[in-house]
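User: Can you help me understand a structure? I only have the sequence.
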Amino acid sequence: MSDTVAVNIVKDFRIGNTRVRIATDYCSDKTSDEINLILQRISRGALQSFSADRI
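Assistant: Let's start by predicting it. Here is the structure, written out as tokens:
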């Protein structure tokens, strides 16, 4: 397992034996337009996954 250094941890919690850390390092320097494009890409992928699950 690799340890990644994240500066901006906004949430740190456990799910069972798994430790989850959510950081904003990736998106802290993005513009609103870039963030919207990222969210659109994520939502398209999720929608495709949900649609494929229904077939």
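Now, to help you interpret it: The mean pLDDT is 85. The first strand starts at residue 9 and ends at 15. Let me know which part you'd like to focus on.
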